[in-house]
Specification:
Layout (H helix, E strand, L loop, with lengths): L2 H16 L10 H7 L4 H7 L3 H17 L7 H15 L1 H7 L8 H24 L5 H24 L4 H8 L8 H5 L5 H12 L10 H9 L11 E4 L2 E3 L4 H4 L4
Antiparallel strand pairs: 1-2
Helix pairs in contact: 1-2, 1-4, 4-7, 5-6, 5-9, 7-8, 8-12
Length: about 250
């Protein structure tokens, strides 16, 4: 480990120790630096502020989990692995995720997913021979990043309950169909199979999955000449699509 990495790790450990004694909002750069006997100049050499330090901690721990696969379908496994990781360290992450200002952890998570989704979708597009331009790639990747990050955000705000992770894991039953839906290779039978899978995800808790479910069905204009009205849950019905998504014909 390089000297820079050693210093960063020491600052991270210092922050974690301090957060056992006081709230994150009360922790200062002076506190963090003094705890691990590092100068404030050294802190600012590595990080802009304490939020930047939090983002480094998260990326160091979570990025290998999120990016554990090179495929679009594998991103679901990474999503679940990330939830398990956050749950194990929930006291720390439930607090730092509540900050929503500049350089927030939520923004960092969404940006990570955005870049990964661009890579996955572009790779899948090339493998299947379906062309997708840069504008379309950015729109689709941003939708996926909103879905994954937004779902994690809702889960954290809801108290990071363990039972929700079990419900997330049920999404594995539909993950093999994601590339097919995205790249316009599915038919009406796939619609029925996917919708049936979604309806088995426990309707009373459907709000936890609303973003992911809406995302999946938002791509139905890609799959045929006619838009299909999809009833995802009793309280979520998609009958209209955005102009951007509706114009996709790959």
């Amino acid at each position: 480990m390089s000297r820079n990495e050693i210093t960063k790790s020491a600052l991270a450990a210092s922050l974690r120790e301090l957060m056992k004694e006081k709230e994150f909002s009360q922790v200062t750069i002076k506190d963090i630096s003094a705890r691990c006997q590092v100068s404030r100049n050294a802190f600012y050499y590595h990080f802009h502020d304490k939020y930047d330090l939090v983002n480094w901690i998260f990326c160091s721990e979570a990025l290998p989990l999120i990016d554990s696969s090179s495929s679009l379908e594998g991103s679901w496994d990474g999503f679940i692995a990330l939830c398990h990781h956050l749950y194990k360290d929930r006291k720390f992450y439930s607090e730092v995720f509540h900050y929503t200002g500049q350089n927030s952890l939520f923004d960092a998570l969404e940006n990570i997913y955005f870049e990964l989704m661009k890579t996955y979708i572009s790779s899948t597009s090339r493998q299947t021979g379906n062309h997708i331009n840069e504008e379309q790639l950015s729109i689709v990747a941003r939708m996926y990043s909103h879905a994954f990050a937004g779902t994690i955000g809702d889960w954290i705000k809801g108290g990071m309950r363990a039972e929700e992770i079990s419900r997330f894991e049920k999404l594995n039953s539909i993950k093999p169909k994601l590339s097919i839906m995205l790249l316009g290779m599915a038919g009406s039978q796939s619609y029925a199979a996917i919708q049936d899978s979604l309806q088995k995800l426990n309707a009373p808790h459907a709000s936890s999955f609303s973003q992911l479910k809406q995302l999946l069905f938002a791509f139905s204009p890609v799959l045929g000449e006619h838009q299909t009205q999809c009833s995802v849950t009793n309280d979520v019905r998609l009958s209209k699509y955005t102009k951007a998504v509706g114009s996709f014909r790959m």
